[in-house]
Amino acid sequence: AGLIIGAIAAFLVKNGNPGNMGFCLACFWRDIAGAIGLHSAAKVSYIRPEIIGFILGACIMANIKGEFKSKGGSAPILRFTLGFTSMIGALMFLGCPLRLILRLAGGDANAIVGLLGFICGIAIGVYFLKKGFSLGRAHDQSKIAGYFMPAFMVLLLVFLLVKPEFIVFATEGPGSKHAPIIMSIIAGLIVGSLFQRTRLCTAGAFRDIILVKDNTLFMGALGIFIGALVMNLVFGQFKFGFAEQPVAHSDGLWNFLG
Question: How far apart are CA 142 and CA 133, in angstroms?
């Protein structure tokens, strides 16, 4: 699964996505937020089809396998705060943990610093888990609640295709760079399905190694790196170094802290 995800990510860059950004959940959500008017940075505003496909693919696969369950209600304020903080950290680094791997596979040495910070943060999290921290048990919710986000993705797809005036589409900057819509949606469907089936998680990969000495998820993360690296070399997209990397900065402190 990791090899396929990494290869698809490199393929999307080859076909128009920003450099080392075949997938980036944080960056792509930022772009969607701009497209629907939640921020005013026009250069990072676009409804990313990969996110639409990612969520719908996972939802469809969960239903096919009889695993669709709507749950929630545990520590909502804390979850919101943690998610909010995680997004700020990701955008300080300029990439979610998935893009961190893709940046490494593209030769971006700044991502090495980010990886060290990522592992350090996970180790701190594991310490709190060992001390008994828990978000509590989630409770069953109505299926309507579970289908809200997939339905919102369908609405975003309509906006993407119809292009109403109130939706912002970047004409320059990272938001203006994207692969063809149908290609991006198909890629998202495949990747979302694979994540749903494998439970692949980049943070979980290092958490499991530190916490329970299990490398199963790490093999998936390694597969993403290898798949993207090989295809980047094939496409001539690999460029090693700290300077002039696509959608990146070389401030080591903030790359680490993010």
Answer: 27
